[in-house]
Amino acid sequence: MQASRCLQIQSSRIWCGATRAIAQQSDVDHLLRTNFSRWSSSSAAQASGASQVIFSGIQPTGVPHLGNYLGALREWVKLQDKAAEDTRLFFSIVDLHALTVPQNASTLRGWRREAFAMLLAVGLDPNRSAIFYQSAVPAHAELFWILSTVASMGYLSRMTQWKSKLQLPDNTNLDDSAARTKLRMGLFSYPVLQAADILVHRATHVPVGEDQRQHLEFSRYTANSFNHRYGSIFPSPEALISPARRVMSLKEPTMKMSKSHADKRSRIILTDSRDDIVKKINAALTDSELNITYDPVDRPGVANLVEILSHFEGRSCDEIAQEHRSASLRALKTHLARRVADHLEPIREKYLALMADPTGYLDSVAEQGCQSARANSELTMRQVREVMGL
C-alpha cells in the first residue's frame, strides 16, 4: 500500500494516500485495527440509541440540476452542518444503480466524477462526511446478495420503480409476458441493492424525497425479515423526508424537472452561467394573466416560479405571491433569475476549480471517503457473516 501523503487545497488539509490495494483483506484488517476503538465505540453508542448514522446516495448522471439541489443536496449539507458531533454521515455516488440501464463506459466515468465534484462544491465536507463511490465499497454488493435471500419477490413485484422505468402501468404484474420480456433482474432487484446501501452502514436515518418513501419502507421490511431470521443486526432506518417541494419543469410545469426532458430549457443545471439561467427562466412557461397569484392547479407555471423563489427566500409561497401580486410576470422572472444566479454562482465557481485542479484532490477525497465507508461496512459484514455461518 502506498504511503500516505497530505494535500492542501483552499486551506483545508485532508488525509489521503491509500490506493485501491486497500480492497485486499489484509489491508482492510489493518485499517480496521487502526480504527477499531473509534468505530466500535461509535457502534456501541448507536446500539444504545445515543448516536445516529445518516446515509443517502445520488446516481451519477453528470452535473445535478436545480431540483436535485433543492430537494436533496442542499438538505444533505444542512443535515451535516446541524448534526450532533457523534452523528456519522455517509453520502455516496451510487454508480452500481446506474447500471440498471445500458451505459457508455467513458460517459459514466465522466458523470461519476462530475457528480462527486458537485457534492463538494455544494458544501459537503470530507472531514465531516464520508463521500465515496458505491462501487469502491464491495460490501454493498455482498450484502445485496445476502439480502436477496430474504427479500420478498411479491413485495418487489408490487413496487413502482421497475414499472416506471419500463413505462408500464402501475397495475402491471409478473404475469404479464410483455413485462417479463422487458424486465432485467438488476432493475427488478434495484430496491434490494438500495436496502443494502442503507443497512451495510447500519443507517438509522435516510434523507429521501416523498417519492422514495416506498423504497425506504422496503429497506425496513427487509431489515426486519433478516433480523427475525438471524438475530438483531440491523437498525430499522427512519425516513428524513425533505421539506422541499418538488421542483417542476420550466417548460412543462406539471412534470418534475428532469434531465430526460428533450428541451434543455426545461431545467437549470448547477453549472449554468448567469446568462443561461436568465434565458431559461425568461422562457419558462406561464400564462396570459397579468397579476401574480399562487395557484398550483390552475396556474402551474406561475406557481412553479413562486415555489422556486420560496426555496431561496425562505418564505411561504402565499407570502411571496402577495408581495408580488401587482408585479408583471416579466418582473417576477427577472427577480427570480437574479436570486437563483446569485446563489448558484459560488457553487459553479468551486465546481469548475475542483474539476480543473491538477493535484488529484478529487481522487484523494474519494479514497478518504472510501476507506471510511469500507471500514464501517466491514464491521457490519463481519457480524452478518458470523450469524449466517460464513
Automatic annotation (TrEMBL):
Q: What class of enzyme is it?
A: ligase
Q: Which reaction does it catalyse?
A: tRNA(Trp) + L-tryptophan + ATP = L-tryptophyl-tRNA(Trp) + AMP + diphosphate + H(+)
Q: Which organism is it from?
A: Aspergillus clavatus (strain ATCC 1007 / CBS 513.65 / DSM 816 / NCTC 3887 / NRRL 1 / QM 1276 / 107)
Q: Which UniProt keyword terms apply here?
A: Aminoacyl-tRNA synthetase, ATP-binding, Ligase, Nucleotide-binding, Protein biosynthesis
Is ATP-binding a UniProt keyword of this protein? yes
Q: Give the HAMAP family listed for this entry.
A: Trp_tRNA_synth_B
Spell out the InterPro entries in the cross-references: aa-tRNA-synth_I_CS, aa-tRNA-synth_Ic, Rossmann-like_a/b/a_fold, Trp-tRNA-ligase, Trp-tRNA-ligase_bac-type, Trp-tRNA_synthetase
GO molecular function terms listed in the Swiss-Prot or TrEMBL record: ATP binding; tryptophan-tRNA ligase activity
The identity of this protein, by name, is Tryptophan--tRNA ligase, mitochondrial
Which subcellular locations apply to this protein?
Mitochondrion matrix
Membrane-spanning ranges: none
Sorted alphabetically, which NCBIfam families does this protein's record hold?
trpS (TIGR00233)
Quote the cellular component terms of the Gene Ontology held in the record.
mitochondrial matrix
Keyword ATP-binding in record: yes
